Structures are given as C-alpha cells and as structure tokens.
Amino acid sequence: MAPLPNYRPKQLSLGPLEAEILSIIWELNSVTVKDVHDRILADPNRELAYTSVTTVLRRLTDKGWLACDKKGRAFYWRPLVTKQQAEMIRAHEQLRRFLAVGNPDVIAAFADSLDEAATEQIQAIAKRIQAARQAREEK
Questions:
Q1: Which residues contact 122 (CB under 8 A, 6 or more apart)?
Q2: I need a surface site. Which of 50, 52, 107, 115 has the fewest CB within 10 A?
Q3: Pick from 98, 81, 73: which is nearest to 10 by CA?
Q4: DSSP 8-state secondary structure symbol assigned to residue 76
Q5: Spatial separation of the C-alpha atoms in residues 101 and 110, rounded to whole Å
Q6: Under 8 Å CB-to-CB from 76, ≥6 apart: which residues?
Q7: Which H helix or E strand runs over 80?
C-alpha cells in the first residue's frame, strides 16, 4: 500500500480546462506552452488562444500542481505530483470530509445503503487498514 505523498498542492480544486491541461502534462511529463496548445488544437473542433494556455499553466503553478523551469529562452512546466498521487490525495481529502460529518447515524445510514460489491470493497479496505496497523505496531 503506497503511503500518502508528503507533498500536496496548495489548492486541490481544478476547473475543466485546468484538469485537461494537467492530464496532458502527466502524459508528456515536461511541456512548453506550445506543446499543450498544439495538443489541444489537434482536435479540429477546438479553439483556444495560446495566451489562455499560458494563463492556465500559471494558475496550475500558483495552485501548486506544477513547477516551471526556464531552459534558455523557453519555459517548461512539469508536474509536482503524479496522476496516481493526485488520485490518492483527492480520495484522502474526500474521505476526511466525509468522516468530518462526525454523526455516526449519517455514516451508518450511508453504510446501510451500500450494495454488496461496495460492502465487500469496504471490508477489503478494513482488512488492509488492520494489516497496516499491525505492521506499524511491529516496528
């Protein structure tokens, strides 16, 4: 079981274009504005200004998702977390918010409404949590 990453973006929420551009960066790893712009415009039904891509890349950097490096005259953006790390961080945040409700009746009602597959998934999660706790105690 992979631990939660130590690094976490400052702001987790992303708009649709931010999410799309972040996906492109995860795929390419290090990009220029032109790389992202060209990828988006590869769809003949899309229009997007070059400056809009620059703005979104800066926003993603401000939110803590990307780092920007200057090489010569060009700027390159790279992700600070992998796609898998981002999914883990988001899932952890959603679970934390759910448990913050703090009302056992609400959580019990939710658990009672689950179908059999979801119940089996929760049981598997509980087993992994128990195994992780035991491993931690044995250290």
A1: 111, 114
A2: 115
A3: 81
A4: E
A5: 12
A6: 30, 31, 32, 68, 69, 70
A7: none
User: pLDDT category, 77, cuts 50, 70, 90?
Assistant: very high
Are 18 and 42 in contact by the 8 Å Cβ rule? The answer is no
For residue 2, the model assigns a pLDDT of 66
The residue written with tokens 């949590």 in the block is 129
Rounded to whole angstroms, the Cα distance separating 132 from 24 reads 34
pLDDT band at 1 (very low <50, low <70, confident <90, very high): low
Distance in angstroms (rounded) separating the CA atoms of residues 22 and 83: 9
What letters, b where the CB count within 10 A reaches 16 and e where it falls short, cover 39-59? bbeeeeeeebeeeebeebbeb
Token look-up 């990009």 returns 31
pLDDT at position 129: 84
pTM value?
Answer: 0.79
Name 76's bridge partners.
Answer: 69
CA 124, 126, 127, 133 dihedral sign is positive
